[in-house]
Structure formats: C-alpha cells, structure tokens
Amino acid sequence: MGAVTAAPRSIDQALAEARARLDRLTPPQAAEAVRQGALLVDTRYAALRDRDGTIPGALVVERNELEWRLDPQCDHRLPEAVHHDLRIIVLCNEGYASSLAAVSLQELGLHRATDLEGGFQAWSAAGLPVTPPT
After folding, report:
1. Where is the Rhodanese domain (predicted)?
2. Tell me, what CATH number does 37's domain have?
C-alpha cells in the first residue's frame, strides 16, 4: 500500500495552524514570564544579533539546533533543559519563524512552549532591555 500524501498547504496556512496552538505572549507578558522563571530563547541568526543586539538573559540557540538543545531527553541538551514542564518563550526577529519553532518544541513534549508576538523587534520597540551590539 502506498503512503498517503497530504494536500499541499501554504506557509500562511501552516503559520495560522501553528499559532492556533499557541498562547502567544506580548513583550510585556514575556518579560513578566521571564521574571517568573520562563526561559527566553533567541533563535535569530548571528547577523541579526550583531546588527540589533540581544536581550539580557536570553539563551541564544540558533533555529537549526533548537530541538536538540531544548529536548530534556537529548544528549546534546543545554543545562537549562531539565524537564518537559519548562516554560519556554521562543523569539525570532519579527515573530513568524518563532511560532513554527514553538510548535516543534510542543511536539517534543515541551507543552508550555510558546513564542513572542512581534519577536525581537517588538521587544525592542516596547522599550524592554536590550544589550546593544558590540
């Protein structure tokens, strides 16, 4: 018997489906969640961090390593990836790729993973702490 192939869908559809699964946070909500112990994970690539700066205390995990670094069952996990109940807030530059990344973490059992609406740009525009580029 052949494999069942799903109907093609657009990235806009995939993004809408991902966001329907998330309780996305505004920058002030994310800042408060971090104060309460959530892990803020910056998945932006180096050129964007070098251009715009970073968020103090955020873990930098580039997107291509995210699942391996945050899966508590993986040998390559970060020390912070201690259990599946960890509250993780993923951010990218503008809040698009982070939605897809957060759902990928949920699929690994990190059920509290979500993302930051508007990404780093919204965080910065909200006047929240940013370490300028060096």
Report:
1. 34-132
2. 3.40.250.10
